[in-house]
Write a structure and sequence with these properties.
Layout lengths: L20 E19 L2 E15 L4 E7 L3 H4 L3 H9 L12 H9 L3 H19 L3 H5 L10 E2 L2 E3 L4 H13 L4 E5 L4 H19 L5 E5 L6 H13 L2 E5 L7 H10 L4 E3 L6 H9 L5 E5 H4 L2 H13 L3 E5 L5 H14 L3 E2 L12 E2 L2 E3 L2 E3 L9 E2 L7 E2 L24
Parallel strand pairs: 5-6, 6-7, 7-8, 8-9, 9-10, 10-11, 11-12
Antiparallel strand pairs: 1-2, 1-17, 2-3, 4-15, 13-16, 14-15
Helix pairs in contact: 3-4, 6-7, 8-9, 10-12
């Protein structure tokens, strides 16, 4: 399965800022989950999300969110991200005349904070221009993208639980399912087999593509052994089978594997993509804005992967709808066909609404910027340049329970 290879280079220019940033506020919000999120590096009942809101002099506002309890992938906690925002100059400072430069500076030491600033500013600017964010990234003037297919995620659990989730996903129209592995070898194998049986029964043999994500949970020997039964189940690719940072081990798994191997936690930016390619360690890369820091850095990493003949996937952390809207707009604007766009699938409650999932695909909102609405009182957020205790910023009239593919 070719996943996201392409020749189009992406070099998104920063949108023209219609007016200056005059206010920037941040806060931390806990979004409860219906089911615990569990895999090899996390076990949590909520997503700790850091939000940033900016306001332009013309009155338009922009929002962004990033995961604060996903340090296994981003290397930064909610406290780190809040501290980076607290250390920024206040919005009255002349430095805010160049928010892209501020984001670049943040990216050097806290990429998730840089992503917040870059996206919130781009959202506000696109809204002021009356354009969807994706259109500010794609200079080709292409027609609005249609529905964007996405994965259904299946976390740790019993084979029966995995089969139930897979059945619901196939019935809901998903044609890609990603299964978390990397724990008990026998249980992982049983869960993959149960998912394959379930989706084939509902959608027809081979109709639903399976991916497996080990989050670095296996030793090289275990990973190599696993690739054989993953191949028997028709798994399209295996993500990050061994610990990040050990490219020799990743290359050894890839050399022995009948299943394409992708790097995830081992790639963050263009330089790390080239390092993976130089080592012959992967067939594809799973990139995330939260790891790259800025849209420009993410675009450079995508260009690097395509130039080295690697498959490209665009991922996201489990997050709220605001984060999902961000990844969807980036996938459309940067031309990435294989993307995780529905990290909010397991939320019990969210503070954002306005983006929809139908038939296994995300529909981009028909509105400027990110196109979503955030129900958080800005007065309860903390101005940048000011420290705040964690957590903070309770939602105002949270939207309805997340629509999910789960039973």
């Amino acid at each position: 399965m070719t996943a996201g290879r392409g020749s189009r280079a992406v070099s998104p220019a920063a949108p023209v800022t219609p007016s200056a940033v005059v206010e920037a506020r941040y806060g931390v919000i806990g979004l409860p989950l219906r089911l615990r999120l569990r895999h090899t590096t996390v076990d949590t009942a909520e997503l700790t999300e850091v939000f940033l809101r900016v306001r332009l002099a013309d009155g338009h506002t922009g929002w962004a969110e990033t995961r604060g309890n996903g340090a296994y992938a981003t290397r930064h906690t909610a406290g780190d991200i809040a501290a980076a925002l607290a250390a920024l100059p206040p919005a009255s400072d002349p430095a805010w005349a160049a928010p892209d430069a501020l984001a670049d500076g943040l990216a050097a030491h806290c990429p998730p904070a840089a992503a917040l600033l870059d996206i919130a500013w781009r959202d506000a600017s696109a809204r002021s221009l009356g354009l969807p964010l994706w259109a500010t990234l794609d200079p080709s003037g292409a027609a609005p993208p249609g529905p964007l297919p996405t994965h259904a995620p299946i976390g740790f659990g019993t084979p029966q639980e995995a089969a139930e989730l897979a059945t619901a996903a196939a019935r809901a129209g998903f044609r890609r399912v990603k299964v978390r592995v990397g724990g008990d070898h026998g249980l992982d194998r049983a869960r993959i087999a149960a998912v394959r049986t379930a989706v084939d029964r509902i959608a027809g043999g081979g109709t639903v593509a399976l991916a497996a994500d080990a989050n670095g949970g296996w030793t090289p020997d275990t990973a190599i052994a696993a690739t054989r039964w993953l191949a028997d189940s028709g798994v399209a690719w295996l993500e990050q089978p061994v610990a990040p940072g050990d490219l020799a081990a990743l290359a050894a798994v890839r050399a022995a594997s009948p299943v394409p191997v992708w790097a995830d936690e081992s790639v963050r930016d263009a330089a790390s993509v080239h390092a993976v390619a130089d080592a012959g360690a992967a067939d594809g890369v799973h990139l995330k804005l939260e790891k790259a820091g800025t849209v420009a850095a993410l675009a450079a990493a995508i260009d690097a992967a395509r130039s080295r003949g690697l498959d490209v996937g665009l991922g996201q952390m489990d997050c709220g709808r605001l984060g999902c809207a961000t990844t969807a707009q980036l996938a459309a604007g940067l031309g990435v066909a294989v993307a995780e766009l529905w990290g909010c699938a397991n939320l019990a409650h969210d503070v954002t609404e306005g983006i929809d999932l139908r038939d296994g695909a995300v529909r981009l909102p028909d509105a400027p910027g990110l196109g979503v609405r955030v129900s958080v009182d800005p007065a309860r957020l903390t101005p940048v340049g000011t420290r705040t205790p964690l957590p903070t910023a309770a939602p105002v009239q949270p939207p309805d329970r997340a629509r999910t593919f789960s039973p």
